[in-house]
Amino acid sequence: MTEVKTLGTDYDRPASLDNPRSPRPRRGGNLEKYAWMFMRFSGIFLIVLTFGHIFIGLMVDTGVHRIDASYVAERWHQPFWRVWDLFMLWLAELHGGNGVRTVIADYSRNDRTRFWLNVLLGLSMILILVLGTYTILTFGR
């Protein structure tokens, strides 16, 4: 048998690929992995919290016509509903903020622009979380 060699190619040189199981240097940690996992799990919890909130408010508590400030004060007088609504607020804010952070990372081309958009996002998230938490914990007292 004759050996066929192609002229001008590097087929006869060994490949310089790393072993697939060799350790690679870590760059930046696993932030994106954990952010991706957080989005999936928080989305599942948000579905449960939101549908439970809507179902109880509309079906069990005789509908939307009953909802006013006194209804909210009466409901938030119970620790269960305060914790429920706090979880819903915090998960929704962190879930949405993480999604916007991903959009900023995908679409901002300039590092300086990306930095300032993330700073504004972080400040707005903190402001909404502080005001929302304060409202839930002190409403009707």
From TrEMBL:
The keyword Heme applies. Pfam families: Sdh_cyt. Keywords: Heme, Iron, Membrane, Metal-binding, Transmembrane, Transmembrane helix. The keyword Iron applies. Residues 1-26 are annotated as: Disordered. CDD domains: SQR_TypeA_SdhD_like. Its main location: membrane. InterPro entries: SQR/QFR_C/D, SuccDH_FuR_B_TM-su. It comes from the Bacteria. It is found in: Membrane. The chain crosses the membrane at residues 34-56, 115-137. GO terms for molecular function: metal ion binding. GO terms for cellular component: membrane. This is Succinate dehydrogenase / fumarate reductase membrane anchor subunit. It comes from Gordonia humi.
